[in-house]
Write a structure and sequence with these properties.
binds magnesium ion; alpha/beta; binds adenosine-5'-diphosphate; about 400 residues
């Protein structure tokens, strides 16, 4: 990708112009209560920058996975209120995305005002695989604005109307959030400072295979925890009881272990595991116990890396100059299984160099466990997008802005 992607300044004088901003406001909700507003906070600087430049700012975003039609449980209205608090100015909320409410709301904006359109995924054109259907919806979105700013890093890997097609229809630029993300991810893939340590966890191996594939010859060490580790342990010949296992990935894991050995990349797997006989649930007290990774009982499932492994992972990170971490080490949502994730997060805060946290749940874990976000070099807002970037894939929402 070119280094020369134009930022907001390339759009010229924005005073009085209607600027459509694609933000990532996809926050976790409990009813209408926002449980983690990180993505809203991350979106504020670009929105504020545009407002201060005198633009009439029209924010578009999605929430959850509605099925292409309005669904009240996925309304962005609670997000609108929080965005307004964080911006310190009113946010006009349109109850549709491209309908009468959106037109009226945008028409009512003064210079510097901010509006938020209702969930863009209430429209089936947004995520349609049919270029014409998507394009027709993008035409409607484009009519609401004079320029487009792409600032939703969490969606730039999607070829969707509000990410991709609308950029073909309006003068477009990259927002500061996306620009910062791309800059950091480039530093992870192009000549990273060494030692370069990659920590992977989370629930599914199959989600992360591409990253392992692409980073196995770039990283010096690969630390593996989380639910994905059990497929690796099994590939090494250990029994994993009722732990998460992706049997169809065993051969791939075996191949990675061999490849890493051939290339002198150190793969560090846990030597001990915190197990329980059931997955954490509201109606049962957790009964954690620590067992060697090679002796997981048949009736147990691994829910975190053990304390010995947590210390070993922290030690492996101690002299790193570049770290990328994606995926919690355990079921951190339950305190009894948060120790490994806490230890890795703690170790990242001490890294003398670039430490990057990627992945929605990993970023949420860092905040939930009470870490100061400023202690990390960078916390990526886009899990899938950062993984696809590190897999070496082209991101449609970036490529469309770099088309020259
Ligand atoms: P991210 O969003 O950071 O990319 P993932 O979505 O891949 O991370 O994985 C996060 C989830 O993985 C968390 O909800 C966590 O509870 C779960 N997880 C971590 N370790 C385990 C485990 N041993 N067994 C089951 N689930 C796990
Ligand atoms: Mg996740």
């Amino acid at each position: 990708m070119a280094e020369s992607t134009a930022g907001i300044e390339s759009l010229g004088d924005l005073k009085g112009k209607r600027v459509l901003v694609r933000s990532d406001l996809n926050v976790p909700l409990d009813g209408t209560t926002i449980t983690d507003d990180g993505r809203i906070r991350a979106s504020v600087p670009t929105i504020r920058q545009l407002s201060e430049a005198g633009a009439r700012v029209v924010v578009t975003a999605h929430l959850g996975r509605p099925k292409g039609e309005p669904d009240p449980q996925y309304s962005l209205e609670p997000v609108s209120a929080r965005l307004s608090e964080l911006l310190g100015r009113p946010v006009a909320f349109a109850t549709d995305t491209v309908g009468a409410s959106a037109s009226e709301t945008v028409a009512g904006l003064q210079d510097g005002d901010v509006a938020l359109l209702e969930n863009v995924r209430f429209n089936d054109g947004e995520t349609s695989k049919d270029d014409e259907v998507r394009g027709a919806f993008a035409d409607q979105l484009a009519q609401l604005a004079d320029a487009f700013v792409s600032d939703g890093f969490g969606v730039v890997h999607r070829k969707q109307a509000s990410v991709y097609d609308v950029a073909l229809r309006l003068p477009s630029a990259m927002g500061g959030l996306v620009a910062a993300e791309v800059d950091v991810l480039r530093r992870l893939t192009e000549e990273p400072e060494r030692p370069y340590v990659v920590v992977l966890g989370g629930s599914k191996v199959s989600d992360k295979l591409g990253v392992i594939d692409n980073l196995i010859d770039k990283a010096d060490k690969l630390l593996i925890g989380g639910g994905m580790v059990f497929t690796f342990l099994k590939a090494q010949g250990h029994e994993v009881g009722k732990s998460l296992l992706e049997a169809d990935q065993l051969d791939t894991c075996t191949r990675y272990l061999r490849e890493a050995a051939d290339r002198g990349v150190e793969i560090v797997l846990p030597t001990d595991v915190v197990v329980d006989t059931a997955f954490p649930s509201d109606d049962r007290e957790p009964q954690p116990s620590v067992v060697p990774a090679s002796e997981i009982p048949a009736d147990a499932l691994g829910l975190d890396i053990g304390p010995e492994s947590a210390a070993a992972f922290a030690a492996a990170l101690a002299d790193a100059r570049t770290v990328f971490w994606n995926g919690p080490m355990g079921v951190f949502e339950t305190d009894a299984f948060a120790g490994g994730t806490r230890a890795v997060a703690e170790a990242l805060t001490k890294v003398d160099g670039l430490s990057v946290v990627g992945g929605g749940d990993s970023a949420a874990a860092v905040r939930q466990l009470g870490f100061d976000e400023a202690a990390f070099g960078h916390i990526s807002t886009g899990g899938g997008a950062s993984l696809e970037f590190l897999e070496g894939k082209e991101l449609p929402g970036i490529a469309v802005l770099e088309r020259g």
